[in-house]
Structure formats: C-alpha cells, structure tokens
Amino acid sequence: MGVLAFVLGAALLAAGPAAADQWWPHPANAKWNYTWSDSSYNTSGTQEAVTVASESDPSGCGWNLSWQATGPQTVAGSGSVAAAQPDNGTMCFEDEDVGIVNTNWTSSAPPENEPILCPWTVDPQTGDACSNSLSSALFNVIWGVRSPVLSEPLLEGTSWDGTGGAYGDVTSANQFLGLQIVKVPAFPEGVTAAVVRSSVSTEGDLGDPYGSGIRTTWWVYGVGPVQVVFHHNGGTNAPVTSVQLDSTNQLPLQPPPLQNYFPLTQGMTNTYRWTNTKHLPEPEVEKVTIAAVDNRSARFDVQSVKGPMRTVGEYGFTVRNDGIVNDGASAQAATLVKFPPLGHGRHFFTPIDLMEYGFDPVLPAYPVIGSRWSSQRDSQDYQVFGVTGHSTVLRVQTIKVPAGTFRALEIKSVLTQPGHRFGSGVRWSWFAPGRGLVKLVFDHADHSVSTVVLLK
C-alpha cells in the first residue's frame, strides 16, 4: 500500500503561540480509543488507538498524535476481513491564536474501495498518489477544516470558514451551535460537549460527492473530539461516517464562559450618547455599525448622529485566543469642543476611542471573574498610547440604560498616561452578551467624568 503524507505551508499559520489548549489537550500520557465506521465503505467499523507521539516536535510539526488500528478493517459489503489492510499514521497540530491548526500528516493509504478524494488517482505531473483520505477517526475530524480545525475562543455565535485537504481543495462553513449533552461509549452517562456543524464542499474529485456533506463534531473541554457524524452528499442512500470515542484517560472539565460579550455580527448597529461633565456638557450621539466581518475580524464604522461634533471613524477588532484586540483605528472630527490634549497624538472622538484606549485586550478570550491583565512597556500598545495600568474582570451585574436592561460584564481599568491627566484615571466598562458595550464611565484624573450609554 502507498503512504499518504502532506505538510501545510508555514505561511498559512497564524503568528504567535496560543496558551495550552483544553478543547484538545495533549499531555504526554494522553490516550484516546475511537471506533469509526462508514455505512457504505467500512460497515463493521475500525477501532483505533490514538496516543501523543510528541508534545512538541522540533521539526515544526507541533504536537503530534499517532494512531494504530487495534482491530481488523472490513471491506464494504463483502463480510470478509481484509487482514492486510493497514490503518496507522501520525497527525500534527499547533495551538495558534486562531485556534487549533493541523500542520501535517502521514498515514497508510485508504482502503481501495473508498472513493478517490482527488481529481486524479495519481497526479500526472508529480506522480504522487492522492493524499486525501477519510479512512480514520482523525481524518474525519480535520476534513475541510485544517486551518483552523477549531476556531477559538469558542463563543456563542462563533462561525468561521475553513480549508482542508492536502491541496487546500476542500472548503467548509462552520458554526458553533452551543452546548449539548452527548452519550458515547467513553461517557455512557452523558457529557457536556460543544457542537460544531460544518458544511463541507469539495469539487472535481473522483469520489464526488463523497467528500461533500454536513459534518457535526462534538468537542468536550478537557478531552477533545468525542463524536463525529458526517452525512455525505448523494441522496437518501448516501453514506454516513460515524466516529465515537470508546475510552480515554482524559477527564472532562467545566467549559469556560462561552457568552459572547463582543459580538462581531455584520450589520449590527449600536447608538451611543456620550457626555463629559467638564468638556462635553451637550450630549454627542454617535452610531456604531459593524460594516464588514471576515473570519472573526471586523471593521466598526462610527458616525455622528447629532451633537457638537462631526465625527467619522473606522476601527478594526479581532477575536483570538489573546482576547478582543484592536487591529487599528482612524477617526477625525470637525468640532469646536476643546478637550484637554492626550499624549502620543491620541484623541477621544468616539465611544470606541474611550473603550479601546490603553492596552489590549479589550476583553480576555474567556472573561472569568477575577481575571487581570496589565500593560506591557515593550508592547505595540505602549508605543501607541503610552499608557500603563491594569484591567480586572469584576462581576456580572444588571445595568439599565436607555436601550434596555442587561446582565453585563463589568471591567475596571486603571490607566496612567504620564503628563496627561485627561488620559489618566479609572474606567469602568460594561459589556452585554450579544450586544457588546452598553455603558462606560471614565473617571478622568482632571476631575471630569465621561459617560457613555447605549441608546438603541
């Protein structure tokens, strides 16, 4: 039999390492035993033992999983055991800021009866055999979503587009559907899992439409994927591939907070009223629109509605394992309002300026009560704002503003910009799930107070 091998180019990887990943932990002693089957091409099912081959491969592979079939594989429809059919391989991953990324694999070739998942059996230019396969538990996890396999942080409403296949020839649209109790042999009493549904599409392969369809994956925090069901395209009698976790030495953990306090929903608008007790006694009303969204990055457009300022601005934000971070900002205003100067050429023209001022992240990826982060003098944020200080997640409380009543997450930030009292002080920000910023109070060191509230 041939050997499947593929390496994902480094250019596709997100920069910067992410923290140890609990949606798919990989300590040195971790073990998972899966059974995968296909209603047309592997009816009796195959048992596979998955172990951690290395926690960090010096070749750049990342953390490396290996698998080995622990039982024979059955050829579809024949009822006979294909004892000579190997089923083994290795698969590498990286924990990146965007989530879990598959970097490469090598494995035995798929069973001869499985549809070819390439436009050719042997590439006429290179002579290489098709490196796409769905003949293992792990292949079914990564099909169409190698970069990333799982987008993180995993929050309510999370969606992302993925690519996969050995040649980037498989695409997917992925949606986090929420938490669900799922029963698998490893957890017969049921376990809480994050459910991700993927619409997978591949065109031009010899097995088309076998490589396309709807796949649902159940992820357990502290364990990894515990179940996969792939409904292949092809009508009412189309094949269905199933993967289940039989046993593991990993223990489920309580999932982190999954509320989305900073949604990036294209077309969503928030209208704010901003006042300052000394410098802006006449309210300034501005509308914030999420104008463009691309794989968990978004552009916020800001425009004055009424008040003493004529402001327009654009801001970029990205959701990553580092939290909610600012990707850049540009704002200008025609106004007779005289604000005290800020250092580093900064200005407060919009509620977003007040919210993002200081240092990233605006919010941590999973805002646990008591979480605290500080400015770093060697960071780009310090070069931009020149601000020192720290932020803390205080609590969830009920906040009433003109737009309504919200259960909002409260963040307290202590900020110091040397030589600029207006740029120093204490800021409280409140964020509501599915809505974002609903209130902000900035107690400036010049004894003025800026207040922002959500109007509608």
Characterization of this structure:
The longest helix is centred in the first third of the chain and has 6 residues, at 137-142. The model is unreliable at 6-20 and 74-83 (pLDDT under 50). 4% of the residues lie in helices and 52% in strands. The protein folds into two domains: 3-248, YmcC-like fold (Beta Barrel); 269-454, no CATH class. With 456 residues, the chain is mainly β. It has helices at residues 137-142, 351-356, 380-385, and strands at 3-7, 31-38, 42-57, 62-69, 73-74, 81-82, 88-96, 99-108, 150-151, 159-164, 170-184, 187-202, 213-220, 224-232, 240-248, 269-276, 280-294, 297-306, 309-320, 323-335, 372-374, 388-401, 404-416, 425-432, 436-444, 449-454. The protein is elongated, with a radius of gyration of 26 Å.
